C-alpha cells in the first residue's frame, strides 16, 4: 500500500531534482563572460577537429548556440573547406517535439523559432531536397545542458533529440552522436531515463569523455 506512495514520491523528487539541476546548469553557462565563452568555443572546436568521427563525416549536424551554449559554429570554415554538408535542427511543424535536419548554407533563409533560436525557415525546410533523415547523417553535434563522466546527457528537457533519434534503438544505419558542453556543465552522475539515446562521446572545452563499454 505504501509502496505506490513511496514510488510516487521518489518519482516526483527525481523530477524536482532534474528540474532544479537543469535550471542551475543553464544559469552556470549563461554566467560565463563573453571572453570565457569565446575561449571555450575555440578550444571545443580544436578538440572536435581531432575526433575521427568528425574528421570522416561528410554530413554533419551542428546547432546555432543560444543562452551561453558552447559554440560549435567556429567549425564552419573548416567544414566548408573539406566540402562537408552542414545541417541544422529545425522544430518540425505539426509533430510533437521532433526535429528535422535541414541543409545550412550562406543562402539558407533563416527565421527565429518559438524558443528564439535561429533556424532555416519552415518553407525551405518543408522541401525534402533541403533536408536529410537523421539516420543519413554521419555525425550529430548535440547541444547539452549537463553531462557526466559516463557521457550520460541532459538536454533542454523537450525530448527533441531523444524523440528524433528513437529509430537508433532498431537495427540499421545510425549516426555518431557527439554531445558538446562547457566543462562546468559536468556533474557527478545523471539519471538515465528509459528513452535516453546514449551518446558516443561528450566533448567539452577541457576534455572528451566516452562511456565505458559494458556487456
Ligand atoms: N541551440 C540549440 N538549438 C536547438 C536545441 C538546443 O538545445 N539548442 N534543441 C534541443 O533540444 C532543440 C530545441 N529545443 C528546445 C527545448 C526547450 C527549450 C526551452 O524550454 N526553452 C526555454 C523556454 C523559452 C520559451 O518557451 O520561450 C527555457 O530555457 O526555459 C528550448 C529549446 C532544437 N534546436
Ligand atoms: N522517444 C520518445 N517518445 C516519446 N516521448 C519521449 C521520447 N523521448 C523522450 N520523450 C519525452 O520527452 C521528455 C523530455 O525528456 P528529457 O527530460 O530526458 O529531455 P532531454 O533529454 O533533456 O531533452 P532533449 O532530448 O531535447 O535534449 C520526457 O517527458 C520524455 O517522456
Detailed description of the structure:
Its EC number is 6.3.3.2. ATP binds at residues 18-22, 153-161. The chain is of the alpha/beta class. It has one domain (17-209): 3-Layer(aba) Sandwich (Rossmann fold), CATH 3.40.50.10420. 31% of the residues lie in helices and 20% in strands. The protein has six helices and twelve strands. The chain has helices at residues 2-30, 34-50, 52-55, 76-81, 122-126, 160-164; strands spanning 59-61, 85-91, 99-103, 110-112, 118-120, 131-132, 139-143, 146-147, 153-154, 176-180, 201-203, 208-209. The strands form three sheets. It has an eight-stranded mixed β-sheet with strand order 6-3-2-1-7-10-11-12. It is globular and about 55 Å long. The model has no long low-confidence stretch (mean pLDDT 93). The chain binds the ligand Nc1nc2c(c(=O)[nH]1)N(C=O)[C@@H](CNc1ccc(C(=O)N[C@@H](CCC(=O)O)C(=O)O)cc1)CN2 and adenosine-5'-triphosphate (ATP).
Q: N- to C-terminal separation? A: 36 Å
What is the total tally of β strands? 12
Radius of gyration: 18 Å
Q: Describe the biggest sheet?
A: 8 strands, mixed
Query: How many domain modules?
Result: 1
| Helical stretch tally | 6
Catalytic activity: (6S)-5-formyl-5,6,7,8-tetrahydrofolate + ATP = (6R)-5,10-methenyltetrahydrofolate + ADP + phosphate
Binding site for substrate: 64, 69
Family: Belongs to the 5-formyltetrahydrofolate cyclo-ligase family.
EC number: 6.3.3.2
Sum up the structure in keywords.
single chain, 215 residues, alpha/beta, Rossmann fold, 8-stranded mixed beta sheet, two-stranded antiparallel sheet, 12 strands, 31% helix, binds the ligand Nc1nc2c(c(=O)[nH]1)N(C=O)[C@@H](CNc1ccc(C(=O)N[C@@H](CCC(=O)O)C(=O)O)cc1)CN2, binds adenosine-5'-triphosphate
Amino acid at each position: 500500500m505504501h509502496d505506490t506512495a513511496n514510488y510516487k514520491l521518489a518519482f516526483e523528487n527525481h523530477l524536482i531534482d532534474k528540474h532544479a539541476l537543469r535550471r542551475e546548469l543553464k544559469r552556470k553557462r549563461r554566467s560565463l563572460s563573453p571572453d570565457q565563452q569565446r575561449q571555450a568555443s575555440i578550444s571545443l572546436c580544436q578538440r572536435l577537429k581531432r575526433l575521427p568521427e568528425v574528421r570522416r563525416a561528410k554530413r554533419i549536424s551542428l546547432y546555432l548556440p543560444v543562452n551561453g551554449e558552447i559554440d560549435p559554429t567556429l567549425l564552419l570554415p573548416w567544414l566548408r573547406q573539406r566540402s562537408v554538408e552542414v545541417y541544422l535542427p529545425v522544430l518540425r511543424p505539426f509533430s510533437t517535439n521532433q526535429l528535422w535536419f535541414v541543409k545550412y548554407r550562406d543562402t539558407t533563409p533563416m527565421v527565429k523559432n518559438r524558443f528564439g533560436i535561429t533556424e532555416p525557415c519552415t518553407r525551405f525546410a518543408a522541401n525534402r531536397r533541403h533536408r536529410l533523415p537523421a539516420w543519413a547523417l554521419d555525425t550529430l553535434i548535440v547541444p547539452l545542458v549537463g553531462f557526466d563522466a559516463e557521457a550520460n546527457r541532459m538536454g533542454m528537457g523537450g525530448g527533441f533529440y531523444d524523440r528524433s533519434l528513437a529509430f537508433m534503438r532498431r537495427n540499421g544505419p545510425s549516426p555518431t552522436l557527439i554531445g558538446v558542453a562547457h566543462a562546468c556543465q559536468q556533474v557527478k552522475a545523471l539519471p538515465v531515463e528509459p528513452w535516453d539515446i546514449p551518446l558516443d562521446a561528450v566533448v567539452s572545452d577541457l576534455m572528451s569523455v566516452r562511456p565505458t563499454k559494458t556487456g
